[in-house]
Amino acid sequence: MPLNCEIIAVGTELLLGGIANTNARDISQGLAEAGIHCYYHTTVGDNPARLRGALLAAQKRADIIITTGGLGPTYDDITKQVVCETFGIPLELHGETWARITGYFDKIGRPATENNRRQALIPKGGEVFANDWGTAPGCGFRAGDTHIFMLPGPPKECRPMFEQRLLPLLKAMSPETIVSRQLRVFGMGESSAEDKLRPLMERLINPTLAPYAKEGEVALRVTASAPSEEEALRLIAPVEEEVKALLGGVVYGTDDDSLASVTLELLRREGASLAAAESCTGGIIASRLTGVPGASEVFMGGVVAYTREMKVNVLGVPEDVMDTHGVVSQEVALAMARGVCAVTGASLGLGVTGLAGPDGDGSPVPIGIVCIALYDSRDGTQTAQTRNFGDGRERVRLMASMTALDMARRKLLG
Amino acid sequence: MPLNCEIIAVGTELLLGGIANTNARDISQGLAEAGIHCYYHTTVGDNPARLRGALLAAQKRADIIITTGGLGPTYDDITKQVVCETFGIPLELHGETWARITGYFDKIGRPATENNRRQALIPKGGEVFANDWGTAPGCGFRAGDTHIFMLPGPPKECRPMFEQRLLPLLKAMSPETIVSRQLRVFGMGESSAEDKLRPLMERLINPTLAPYAKEGEVALRVTASAPSEEEALRLIAPVEEEVKALLGGVVYGTDDDSLASVTLELLRREGASLAAAESCTGGIIASRLTGVPGASEVFMGGVVAYTREMKVNVLGVPEDVMDTHGVVSQEVALAMARGVCAVTGASLGLGVTGLAGPDGDGSPVPIGIVCIALYDSRDGTQTAQTRNFGDGRERVRLMASMTALDMARRKLLG
């Protein structure tokens, strides 16, 4: 019998529409991986009576209850108190957690308040999940046949704590093993990918194959169920190969890979280095690359050249190239790419110039047009492309930065 | 008495973590605007018994029930059938909707199936919300004291149908208007802010005041309920002033403001301009600023100077300053800030150098240490600070970039 779990989110902010409940999505994905069923998500506000009601309803239906939110230091953070009262478990100060919290406040030079001390209260005899991403620890205990776990509300804390601390426990509790592998796809839409994969998707029973749209890209999830992880992986391997054969070079990586991490890895392998000259992407390419630990070994740096002066003075873009072809042109993108190689000494240079909107630049260039160039200083080869990424400043900037990284990736693959 | 509404999402894909329930967020925002309370969000799968249970629970507690999802043409789309059975209302074919659906299929040259016909079934005597964004119409009816509305699941259909068709109805039904205003705080933690605001928070009934932790900052939400928007705003204004008086300069903006947008606005007002030389933040400051439309008027550009060579060659940081003080030092940050002003011609320059981790740089500088400098080329004044942002590469980078923007903001405020 598979276990079943309910997720109860606590937070008036969710009921006011301030944020979407992405924690429920993230936790549900993990439960599915662990072979644990989930039949209900419930959200209640910071209200003791309604939280208690939701807990009692879940207790009747589920083997496992996971709450998110309400572990913060303020007086409307009620989850631990209400959960422990509902299940008759006392709270006690957890020394290690309190030391951790006071240590954190010492380090940043602010005093820990009485409120912060409440965060170190933990259900007696229960488990503690240290919080490496914030201050409120998670915790859990068993009451009768029910396992209750409490995770913090901010997604940046909830998600890693769930994945790194709670999910391994749940997998150990679950009699089934479900293993998922994501194949990451850039340069093909969800419906085109599904069109190509439809016969395979319909044929497959275990593993299953399903596409999901992610920010600017598509993830294909291959999910296998088996008595052991090894067996599940053995089921997944041939499907992964078949997908790659059907889709070709648009499959750029798996699981936690990103276009930035894959590009950096290829640079390392090739003994090459990269730099970026950005106009409309305004530093996104550089910040994505430098977001990957160890980027500095192969990412030489970047220039955010928003103004004409910077393009000329720092990157050495000739004035007449801008006058002749316009600032948004492949010629300027190429000159930027060459310039950033010269300035940084990188072997590969990216140059991006375009119009992200919402306003145009007075030229006839429509909003959404971006020119992206790649220069290889090792042999002097260069390529450039012009793309129309449509409306929406954020989307244009995102797609332009991802397309640029993908150009570098494909060049490095040869 | 304000009305109260519950949202029931129907869809197994939500419980499998395929997507987040953004519909509940979008609808909740509208309910808050309309002065309608929302105490519960529930998600169930495509399962008649569990949906019926959720409906019966909601009927006892709410004046209005809104369901999302399960209106599609496939056999697992069960919402209309289960809702109508639960409330004892028959379904009947809606001629206009059926004509619309067959017209659509004629246009794309495919036959409408028996399944599609199910989409044209509507609760007898109820309302129909035409779907201009897909095929399944929404609908609603009244059963006793309860109003039930059903919206389609895909967010691209649910959101506009809610906003354009259902929300106006709800606003007409609601006796109250609720207005929220967010005050944005940087440089003070959630618990410290609450410590200072506690007496005010406890005294207030309408409006209410509540703090929320956001990425690296804190939002204070002031929410007032009144018969009209004007009256609600009149209730909010003095609370906003009182909060500002209690917290001082850490309150940097309201609602959709960000540190980047506020800094850009101050630059515009002062006739000044800004540039950024970034080492450990790797382009985040530039990408945050350029994320705001119109940034190019006052943001001159940036240099991502990860390597020693770039600091020397592009920014003109003297080699001996790096050798004497180390790369992570206020002296280097200041030299970077001066250098980026020289390169870009900006009136203000930010320089950031630090160790984001996870690995150190071989020097005794601990991970998390960041030096941030601001140079004003108009009068040659300069300031620098050294901060310890603790562990976690992403958090160190985020806090360093926000602190740098806040330094510029405070300088511009004088």
The average pLDDT value of chain A, as a whole number, equals 92
Using the alpha-carbon principal axes, give the shape of chain A.
globular
Sequence stretches where pLDDT stays below 50 over 5 or more residues of chain A: none
Discrete helix count of chain A: 15
**What is the terminal-to-terminal distance of chain A?**
50 Å
Q: What kind of sheet is the major sheet of chain A? A: 6 strands, mixed
Percent in strands of chain A: 25-35%
Radius of gyration of chain A: 26 Å
Number of strands of chain A: 17
Portion in helices of chain A: 40-55%
- Counting helices, strands and paired strands, the structural category of chain A is alpha/beta
Strand arrangement within the widest β-sheet of chain A reads 2-1-3-8-7-6
Biggest interface: A-B, 90 and 90 residues
Name the quaternary structure: homodimer
Explain this structure.
The structure is a homodimer of 414-residue chains. The first copy, chain A, is α/β, with parallel strands linked by helices. Chain A has 15 helices and 17 strands. Chain A has helices at residues 12-15, 22-34, 48-61, 79-87, 95-108, 114-118, 155-173, 190-203, 229-247, 259-270, 284-290, 308-313, 319-325, 330-344, 393-413, and strands spanning 4-10, 37-44, 64-68, 91-93, 121-123, 127-129, 138-143, 146-151, 177-185, 208-214, 217-226, 251-254, 274-278, 299-304, 348-354, 369-376, 381-388. Chain A has a 6-stranded mixed sheet, sandwiched between helices. Chain A has a 5-stranded mixed sheet with strand order 14-13-15-16-17. In chain A, strand 16 (369-376) and strand 17 form a beta hairpin. In chain A, helix 2 runs parallel beside helix 7 (155-173), helix 3 packs across helix 4 (79-87) and helix 10 (259-270) runs parallel beside helix 15. The radius of gyration of chain A is 26 Å and the shape is globular. The model of chain A has no long low-confidence stretch (mean pLDDT 92). At the A-B interface, helix 1, helix 2, strand 2, helix 3 and helix 5 of A face helix 2, strand 2, helix 8, strand 10 and helix 11 of B. Strand 14 (299-304) of chain A pairs antiparallel with strand 14 (299-304) of chain B.
